[in-house]
Amino acid sequence: TQWSWTLIPKDGAHADGPRVSVSDSNMEDMLSSNSATKKPPPRRKSPSPNSSVLGDVLKSGPYKGVYELAGFLQHAKCDWTAAKRAAEQIRDPVYTCRFFHDDVVAAFPELLLYCTGDSKESAAWDDEYQRTIGALFAFFWLMRMDIDGKQGFCYGVDDKWAVRNPEAEIKKADANNFPTLKADWTRRRQFHDSIDWKAFQQLVVNAKLLQSPTGPHDVERTLAMLVLLAMHDIMKVPAIQPQVIKSSYSGFKVGERITDHDTALSYVLTTWPSVLPSYAGLGAKSKQCVQFTLCKLEYNMGWLVQAEAPPGPLLRTFRKVVTTGKVSPADIAFYFVRWLTDLAGAEPFPLEGCEKFVLKFPQKIFEQFIETFSFIGNLSASVTETDIVEDYLRQRWHPTWGPAPQGEGAIAQMRVVCMAQGDTAEIVEHYLELSQDDRRVLDFELAITGCKGQSFRRDVLKDSSHKDKGPAFLVYYSPALLQKAGKKDGKGALSILAEVLRKSRNLWPLTAKDGDKSVTVRIELLKGLEVSEIVTAEPGKHFVLAKTSDVEASVQLKDISEFPRLDWKKNQVL
User: Fold this and answer.
1) Is-above-0.85 flag for pTM?
2) Alpha helices by DSSP H, 296-421
3) Are 455 and 386 in contact (CB under 8 A)?
4) Looking at residue 211, what DSSP letter applies?
5) Which of 69, 136, 185, 297 has its CA 20 to 30 Å from the CA of residue 555?
6) For 16-19, which contacts have Cβ atoms below 8 Å and span 24 or more sequence positions?
7) Which residues pair with 5 in a beta bridge?
8) Coil, strand or helix: which one is 257?
9) How much helix, strand and coil, in percent to the nearest 5, is found in the chain?
10) How far is CA 192 from the centre of its chain?
């Protein structure tokens, strides 16, 4: 496969660096020292791939099964010399980000699947390509934290691919009167100086990518991660999403196109593993690790960080996979490294560093995300979903807040503290001020696990007559409710949460047969409102909790004139 770089006539090209596309007006601003309307330099992308061989084919999709896809890539080969060089030299101090970039784009032909020629979606697909490169760069920097990885992660590289200097960039922003750019660089430096880098390094060590924070590294597992990152999002391109043939797959029937990109890639890898040349060339252990990382674990990191979900819906599938005995703790950590790099590269400007984390993620939340990795890694046949959640809640309870709650209402208090992400003493005070009825509802509902045979150790619910009954409720966007409405009226926001749970229980009474069941209650309609706007809706309207399926309900705003026509077995007025 031949590579070439897209030529853009109006760009700020550097002989030894990437081309940067800018408009005429931006170019004039960058070159003119006397311009009164100077603009900050544009955020930079890596060079975009272009292939005349593949461009026309991509326009003809969707493919039927993977037959055309197989034919499409039958002459494409992974450049294993470049791939192995990237995996072997990733920690060499003289092996720069530029060398790494050139090797991975030369090595993995799957990256060409983002090419679209003149397609209307080419800009969007190029963004996906840039995010893929961003994930690869994030991994490159994670693997060399003790060399220049911390700096690359936070500051990115300049047009000559050298790691940028924050002091020089702040002075430059000052000199050009770019206050927003100066603030960004100040934040980058603060992130670099204050983040717990040991947690990053430990995760990479746990994944057995490194033997220790200072190396050496495992070349085979490193190569597997590079292949995984190069192809993990290719099925976001609609033209190459496969249609199911022979037999149904993961809920998709024969003849249906698999639109979920993770499922689509898993389908190709499990059904025709030889289709994608880079994956096909991996060893058996590496393939197994990659397949586990791509499988559906139904795990939402935010649900744990903000204590949004009961243990059942949060971790049941994950634990089921882990307890098969086929997955090692190292592979679980490998999964989280992939997750971390994917999110780190979410902004389509890879040369700028990992902006998603450094500039756009609240540092407190980010550190909590990293903290959760160690908890999930403890899942086993003897450590249950509920054990993990309770250990996490206990860890989040800071000693300065006083003794961790114990007894009835303990889990509810610990969960709302995580949900609200605010002043803990104030949140607990609001909780204790609630009416007896509201507290009883929260104490009970927030301690139901959704896992039959499991209960929280510190909460007396385990001794109640409702043991092993369900379903449990996942109130989707409950943290947003407590963080927005609760900021001004914490007690009122908690009362609203109690009311939603109360009416949910009316729709799904407790039964023993539903002990392993969970119901998702969606309240996005409330998440951006103040308490007063929820309690007093628009004139002539009222909020209603509507049962939309056997496992889901949603808050809806109904015109009171509709009430006579509503099925009150499936609707509850809030």
Assistant:
1) no
2) 301-305, 311-322, 329-344, 355-358, 363-376, 385-396, 410-420
3) yes
4) S
5) 297
6) 16/160, 16/161, 17/158, 17/159, 17/160, 17/161, 18/44, 18/45, 18/46, 18/47, 18/159, 18/161, 18/351, 19/47
7) 49
8) strand
9) 55, 10, 40
10) 21
Helix (H, G, I), strand (E, B), or coil: what is residue 161? coil
Nearest to residue 412, comparing CAs of 486, 470, 497, 476? 497
CA 386 to chain centroid: 23
Q: Per DSSP, what are the bridge partners of residue 473?
A: 519
CA dihedral of residues 73, 77, 78, 79 (deg, nearest 10): -150
Measuring CA to CA, which residue among 250, 164, 253 is closest to residue 153?
Answer: 164
- Residue written as token pair 């939603």: 500
Structure tokens at 42: 């544009």
Instruction: Write out the two tokens for 549.
Output: 């399926």
Q: What is the pLDDT of residues 164-212, one digit of tens each?
A: 999 999 999 888 888 999 999 999 999 999 999 999 999 999 999 999 9
d(CA 143, CA 137): 10
**Contact present, 110 and 231 (Cβ < 8 Å):** yes
Nearest CA to 341 out of 217, 200, 244, 212 is that of 200
- Pairing verdict, β 571-573 and 541-549: antiparallel
pLDDT of residue 463: 56
Number of residues that this document lists for the chain: 574
C-alpha closest to that of 415 among 459, 383, 454, 376:
459
Integer Cα distance of 238 and 58 in angstroms: 9
Provide the residue type at 299 as one letter. Y
> Alpha-carbon distance 332 to 293, whole Å?
8
Distance CA 226, CA 79 (A): 13
Taking phi over 0 as left and psi of -120 to 50 as alpha, with beta for the rest, 61 belongs to: beta
Query: Is residue 456 helix, strand or coil?
Result: coil
CA dist list (Å): 96 to 2, 17, 80, 105, 159: 23, 13, 19, 14, 13
pLDDT tens digits for range 320-362: 888 877 778 888 889 889 989 998 998 999 999 999 899 987 7
Nearest to 11 by CA among 25, 29, 23: 23
Look at residues 268, 338, 238 and name the one whose alpha carbon lies nearest to residue 67. Answer: 268
Model confidence pLDDT, tens digit, residues 529-566: 999 999 988 888 999 999 988 889 999 999 998 998 89
- Helices 311-322/385-396 angle, 10° precision: 120
